[in-house]
Amino acid sequence: MIVYGDHAERVDTRERLAELAEGRERVLAMPPGLARHAALVGLFVDAAGLAQGVADALFAADGVDRPSEAQDACLAILLPLAAAVRTSWDTGFESIGVLPESAAAAPLPDTVDVRLPEGYAFYALYPEAYIEAARDLRLAEPLRVIGIRSIGVGLATLVAVALGAPPPVTLRPVGHPFDRRVDVAPTLAAELLSPPSATYVIVDEGPGLSGSSFGAVADFLERNGVPPDRIAFLSGHGGDLGPQAGERHRARWATARRRSADAEAFLTDHLAGWAAESLGGLDAPLEDIAGGGWRRRLYADEADWPAVNPMWERHKRLARSCGETWLLKFAGLGRIGERRLARARALHACGYAPEPRGLVHGFLVEQWMDGASPLDRAAVPGDERMRMVAGYLGLRSRLFAASNAAGASLAELLAMARFNTLRSLGADRAAALDRWRPRLADLGARVKRIETDNRCLAHEWLRAADGRLLKADGLDHHASHDLIGCQDIAWDVVGASFDLDLPPEALAAAVERAGGRRPDDELMAFLAPCYLAFRIGWHRLAAESLGGWPDERRRNEAAAEAHAARLGRLLDERAG
């Protein structure tokens, strides 16, 4: 099934350098404390993204990783920031040391593509956890640190600073996702392999389904004479390699020296203290409601629980303070979380979301709606559902322009839909989608991308105790770890029409009456099978990964079957 996708933002390097300089001044003007530390980490994340974008731009031009003045200039900004993060962390946020001037000492490409750092955006991967994990390795010197791009640029810099190692080198694994390799120029290889007695630390998030990125770097080192006992791994979790790992990589991983920056352990140690400082104390320990645990508070009967994938959900905790209950949900570090806070405030101001209190080092704090219940479509008349959804989507189409954020092209959506339909319904129904291929260019000219919700599911609409209907979790699905990204408002209209049992044409007209842009009818007709095919793929992939959660697996299998049946009926109706 095709579900996943990567997102990148096109960044003007001069503008990013100016933003780094402004951020430096803001941090320097802040008093010591958690808020300043969080701002410093955000500055570090931005500098790491710039370094990643520059390195990848040069790799794309050369076809290999090689030394360059531009990369050295980015590293000259990033290393002191990493040292400042370490100092702030070690001193309980009291000191940050000396911050660098945010100016590159060598020319940079005019624009670069900065990839969304998934760990910082989705999985509560904290740079500070890598500092702690690196110190636990206790390796023999001399040390060399290798970061795996994308996110490994910043993480490797932190590890090098924590270990007192020389500046790190970063590599870009390429090739099939389950069989990566690294292409290293001879000059960089010679630099990496010196001195011959070095011990190596390979740094990244993951490992994922195959661990092939870690394996590709280790393969390069071993081919060049580095013995396995002088190769260590620092990863984002302490588990085994995924099911697509080769036996050689699996055997190496099982015996290698490694440490992990485990998010659960890190948050267990630190989040309650951060929350208490922000909220003015806690009345009780934090309650973990991630992994679908929130359903226990919203549904009286487990039989009514919607399908989720516990492994893909954000970290969530409930905090009780001064008699009130607050939801702490991981929203992202630095500008990632700040953008989501801004959306939360805009939606709340217009009556569509709970009240946000602010950010606590990557966690969005918003009011927990005690007494709220998921939308019961049978209990809420269609005209009320129509007004609610149309007003919400009209607001999104007005307020949340996509700027330069990425989203799947119509050709990519068609390829996804055809593949997922083929796997679920067979070749004949998949072939029925080919009629759209000649129309893609014309349809593409009609697309006006916004930061779409992408999940107008019934269980994400809440009936508050006072009767209001609110949209939960509407901040960031356009930037999720899937291929959809920012789309035309037509994508949300189609999705809501399926998930909330609303006629799509009537909903489109209602969105226009609510002040939004009316979606193109033909574009909606194209996106309808694409939406259902994506939902099929999402639930099937979830089911395949949930062998340890049999009840969740059954829920996802049932959801996939329901979407497949609906897609089959849609395609048959159009064929007839």
Describe the structure.
The protein has 20 helices and 19 strands. The chain is α+β, with helices and mostly antiparallel strands. It has 3 domains: 8-261, no CATH class; 280-289 and 307-367; 373-575, Aminoglycoside 3'-phosphotransferase, Chain: A, domain 2 (Alpha-Beta Complex), CATH 3.90.1200.10. The strands form 6 sheets. It has a 5-stranded parallel beta sheet, sandwiched between helices. A 5-stranded antiparallel beta sheet has the order 10-11-12-14-13, sandwiched between helices. Helix 6 (152-163) links the parallel strand 3 and strand 4. The longest helix is centred in the N-terminal third of the chain and has 29 residues, at 34-62. The radius of gyration is 24 Å and the shape is globular.
What features would you highlight for this structure?
single chain; 576 residues; alpha+beta; Aminoglycoside 3'-phosphotransferase, Chain: A, domain 2; 3 domains; five-stranded parallel β-sheet; 19 strands; 47% helix
The radius of gyration is 24 Å
Number of domains: 3
- Approximate shape: globular
SS-derived structural category = alpha+beta
Number of strands: 19
- Flag low-confidence runs: none
| Widest beta sheet: strand line-up | 4-3-7-8-9
Helix share of residues? 40-55%
Overall pLDDT, averaged? 93
Query: What portion of residues belong to β-strands?
Result: 5-15%
User: In oligomeric terms, what are we looking at?
Assistant: single chain
Distance between the ends: 27 Å
The major sheet is characterized as: 5 strands, parallel
